Amino acid sequence: MYNKVFLIGNLARDPELRYTASGIPVAHFALAVNRFKRKDSGETGQDVDFINIVAWRRLAEICGEFLKKGRPVAIEGRLQVRTYDAKTGEKRTMVEVVADNMQMLGRKTDGASSVPVEEKTVDSLAQSSEEEIPF
Description:
Layout: E1 5-11, E2 16-19, E3 25-38, E4 44-56, H1 57-66, E5 72-85, E6 91-104, E7 107-110, E8 113-116, H2 122-128
Parallel strand pairs: 4-6
Antiparallel strand pairs: 1-3, 1-5, 2-3, 3-4, 5-6, 7-8
């Protein structure tokens, strides 16, 4: 069995960084991913899928610090299916991607000039940090 997901898209909202009761950081955000399709008329169009992403520990902190709405990113992770009870008492099922790695893409704009941002992976960010990635 193999459960691996690779996604490239733009952040639909800023990451929401929280901490568990035991102090473990967790970030939640959504990734907007375009899906191209051919309409019945023969024209091409596109739809957007919004994929929920969850990141844990140091990756969550990095996402909370560096990612902003609209930013293009690549996410590598695994699918996770969770079941929970809604406020109405109904059982609900949620599919999300648990991120193992994240890479920032694109360019950062600063006023009128465009400054390229080197692509950073979690590994390169962790090496510049004093603490080690715990996973």
